[in-house]
Amino acid sequence: MQQHQLEHAGFLLAYSGGLDSTVLLSLFARLRQQQPHLPVRAIHIHHGLSPNADQWAQHCRQQCKQFNIALIIEKVRLNPTNGVEEAARRARYHAFKPHLQPNELLVTAHHLNDQSENLLLALKRGSGIKGLAAMQVRSELWQMAIFRPLLRYSREQLEQYALAQGLNWVEDESNQDTHYDRNFLRHGIMPALRQRWPTIDRTFQRSAQHCFEQQQLLEELLSPLFQQLYRTADRTLDIAPFHTYSRSKQHFLLRLWLEQSAVEMPSQRQLNELIDNLIFARRDSQPQLQLGQRVIRRHQHRLYLTALYADISTTIIKVELEQSVTLPDNLGTLCFQVRANGLNVIWRQTEKISKFVLPPPPPQQKIEIRFAYSGKVRLAAERANQDIKKIWQQSDIPPWQRQRTPLVCYGETLIAGLGVFIKE
Description:
The chain is α+β, with helices and mostly antiparallel strands and 424 residues long. It has helices spanning 3-6, 19-34, 53-67, 84-96, 112-125, 129-132, 155-165, 181-196, 200-229, 247-260, 268-279, 388-394, 399-402; strands at residues 10-14, 40-46, 70-75, 104-107, 138-141, 144-147, 230-231, 236-238, 288-291, 294-299, 302-307, 316-318, 324-326, 333-339, 342-348, 353-358, 367-370, 376-377, 386-387, 407-410, 413-417, 421-422. The strands form five sheets. The protein has a six-stranded mixed β-sheet with strand order 3-2-1-4-6-5, with helices on both faces. The radius of gyration is 28 Å and the shape is elongated.
């Protein structure tokens, strides 16, 4: 490991207890003997897939104690919609992220053989050059800084080191199951390729590096345009000029946009569907495309990425003054406080707190929160009635946000759309 890679950083080692990560643990333990103040921790993800999972966790505890490295053990549950392998990988990285401290690198034990397998799996999926670029020694994944110091070494070299050092590791019995794609390549395909072409892993590594460099060049060339289209404040993308771009250019800009929000890259078919059925849909339509638990939506020549929202249009919540009420679908809480000039309303959400002052309600008048309203609204005595749709449009509120804006009603009279309008 080069010195410049270690400066001003802490390290969180992904430690499974297997051969590769045990070598990684040993190397960092030796490194810390030379640099006693080097911040090093380890994390073991307990998938619960094997009957031996508890024994592996105990083994990891013992090894980390022996190396004097603090260990975190995190249990995860899998959602195997896209297969167990992918589910386990996603669960691991989602579990790593909350434990990473500022200026700390996640360190994995990926090696040269893993790179070959990743490249072939990417080819099997029909990936573009970004997928074929496979892994780099330093990269970012799901907004986490990743360090792979063993990437240039083969598994054979790691095993030689482990045997020479007398290291102990566990063997995952599932690694022999060729039902899994990676194991099929590892045991059924790669040995034959290495026998025919002994340097095939190095050749694959070069191909992956070429793809990485081409991807970097494309990003460098298109980054200035992307920055013109991308709005950082709400992470939206301007698609007004998309009709002037080639399909390849459209694809690349969309991938850059999705990458900004750590969204899994869509397939070629999904990208084309996004362009044809959403970006170029009729102006008066409200198209959307679901990607996992996220939804891409269009409004006023911009693309928005939102969560998958529940339908709360029929929800009605009765308000008790001076008490907090919980809003549906993770919209936070509201509290109505009586003051001399009316009602103070405090809306607490995950990322912000908003405060509003509403006119006082009539005596004994019930107060309700709703999320759907149709008809006209008079915002002030001297103003004419307006259809609420006009108010939403004038305030540039996207259609999906209109049904997520708490509407405060005194009886059947609409008083406010919090954050948008308040009746005087």
